[in-house]
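Running this now, will post back.
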Amino acid sequence: MEQVFYSLKVIEISKPTYNSTTVSFTIPKGLLNTFQFQAGQHLCFKFIINGKEEERMYSLHNSPFENEMYQITSKIKDTGLVSKYIATNLKLGDIIKVSEPKGNFVIQPTENCCKTHYFFAAGSGITPIFSMIKTILLKEKRSKIKLLYANRNITDILFYKELNDWKEEFSERLEITHTLTKRFLDTSQIGEVVKRGRINEEMINEFLNENSLEILKSEFYICGPGEMNQMTLDTLTELGVPAKLINYEYFSTEGITYDDLNSAANVELDALIRNENYHVILNENETVLQGLKRVGAPVPFSCQNGICGTCKTKLTDGKVEMKSSMALSSNDKKHNYILACQSLAQSTVVMVDFE
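Update: finished.
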């Protein structure tokens, strides 16, 4: 089942940094229920570029407890077709195609909650975390927040002014530690002590020690490129943090190397979707998702690169190997969930249930 896209009007465009674009839009009253979201969720955008449909996901960075514009920020990349299009072609008043909010990297605030939320972000990985932090500040008035935020240099820091404003307003509840990776960088203009280098195991340990870690009274959130996410996850696990307290989302596949995978031809795939069974014979090296799409099955999917988790399904029989499993939690894997877009059959029969 392909996503449903709705037509929304661009009401504001700004540039928070030299290499990023913030797009703001409002939701018509008739779609407010459809676009209700939790802090941390993302939207899928569809653009027609050079005559071809291009879909990309961007996290909402406004809080669901603000009655204001919906906002996303796109960081411009040298090879980023869509990010360049947003930066150079999108105009006020344009109608854009947007899907409803999705994603499991979320926070559900509790009024009387009293815990410490630790956030680890790199680059544009701050966007869902930005929404989460503001939501906690607004709704969990007894909780504290500790943010470790990595960027290349000062001018790359997304939401720098807003974060500083929050830090001043909520000085007893919000602490922010910046780390910058560019060599020979003059940090005097930032007006505060900053760490140097990428987030690594030593920096994480130091950050947690500086902030008096109490594991069972805390929760942890990680968002950035795959290499950083995995290292942070491993470090927290080694410190004894239970998996149920760690939440993470990948913002790119950079830095992750996948083994070459193959599958045999003529694999029999049966998929239960919306209480109906769909049968397909998979071609050689055809993923579960590709096979189901080929026969017109209403299979849910979005990014098709293992990041969003829209095509998550339960493997009920057979064996598959995944090229990427970034969108799956350790609990998902424990209960035999797979990503259809990344799964190549390793047995002659495969059965999946999309529930």
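The radius of gyration is 21 Å. More later if anyone needs it.
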